[in-house]
Amino acid sequence: MIWFLTRRSISLGRSRYKDSGSLLQEQRLTFSNWDFGIGMPSKMARKRLLSRVSVVWLAIGCGLLVAQPAHSAGLFLTEMATPDLGTAAAGRAALAVDAATAFGNPAGMTRLDKSQMLAGIQPAYGITQFDRDSETTISGGNGGNALGFIPGLAGYYVYSATPDLKFGITLGSNFGLSSRYQSNWSGRYYALQEEILTLSAFPVAAYRLNNWLSVGAGAQIIYGKLHSRTGINDALDGGDASLDVSDHDVGYGGLAGILIEPIEGTRFGITYTSQVKLDFKDKPTTNNLGPLLQNALDASGLTGARLDIGLTIPNQVMVSAYHDLTDSLAIMGNVVWQQWSEFGKPTVEVQSTTSNKATANLNYDDTWGFALGTRYKFHPEWTWSLGFAFDTSPISTKERSPALPLDQQIRVGTGIQYAFSDRITLGVAYEYLNLGSADIDRSRPLAGTLKGDYSTNEIHWFNMTVAWTF
């Protein structure tokens, strides 16, 4: 006996697989256009059956793409160990008051009279707990806390070459989180452990064209590391197995910004961040796989096959405004668009004796974000900040996965900065991030039905920053 998977008239690269009446001599369990069955293949189909195991491998790869980690505004993190954590990043592209503008809007570097360095540390603690309901069909628990402690660190530097020409660099991460569920939880066939970790460098330059217009541009160099573990319901042998994929890659992109200052104390900023493509390649490894399913993979030649997963970090456009109401009080805000519909179309390729390639459509929607904040200088050396932000959800309940439980998000931040001297400014900030209830209603053969929501789904961010002007 052998489990197998076919799809009626599905095009995979140059190959086309069609359902054959002689392939199965027993009843099938149909899910959407995918057919899962158990039985004895006919002689006519036996050889083709082994080659079609590659389609199973390809389907597993597409499943892994659904299982990419994150909880924060898609995978984008506005929390980058900067003082504007205290405004929930409101006004980021127009604020331009410290070296963090090298990333927020490179054109804003022209507002810094001297060279400056800013460093920040940002520990966080996330609480993500799933609450399964009675319609969940797989036994097990709720998975425990899938997040926990999250370290963070970033650095920013701006070099003032001339009053109008500036160069800068940012080292940090603005993309990715990780999640880890307990091994026996009821959603283990959808996700066990998912990580996309990034480390990025953003070298930039800016030039002031006149007294009201500055422009800036630079590059994105992003190192990404993927580790994904998904449970397998080994119905042939009875028991649980798992599949691991792990790899790293470097992707490249660009960013650009414009800063407009029509009058003193009022400015508008626009920052564009391009998409970056990452290509992860690995030979998946299995754990606790039973002998029958292992033999099927061995016979098909797919045991050592390489799985290629292509991901796209989406385009982003941020439009910000800043205005001084008085000498001590200012307001600021953002509108942000992120093209998550492109992230939701990953490519998966199985490279073996018969290579197959497909593009999955995870039905993601582009997202919109809005933020509003204020800064109040209540003492010549002290500034207090407060902000609020809201981001729309990129995915619906039916499409949402426990590895990617994205939902609408609400941020509330506050912070204090202290001018220790003319050259050194210290800051502390806190932000509460509510990740939404992230309702899930998924059903899949062998993986079962998983239904419920996240009764607690939040991250608490803390940061400490120091800025040196020299």
UniProtKB/TrEMBL annotation:
GO molecular function, one term: long-chain fatty acid transporting porin activity
One GO CC term on file: cell outer membrane
Annotated Gene3D superfamilies: Outer membrane protein transport protein (OMPP1/FadL/TodX)
Main location: membrane
Membrane spanning stretches: 49-67
Alphabetical keyword list: Cell outer membrane, Membrane, Signal, Transmembrane, Transmembrane beta strand, Transmembrane helix
Record's bilayer topology term: Multi-pass membrane protein
This protein's record includes keyword Transport: no
Compartment annotation: Cell outer membrane
Pfam families recorded: Toluene_X (PF03349)
Coiled-coil stretches: none
Family designation: Belongs to the OmpP1/FadL family.
Protein name: Long-chain fatty acid transport protein (Modular protein)
UniProt source species: Candidatus Defluviicoccus seviourii
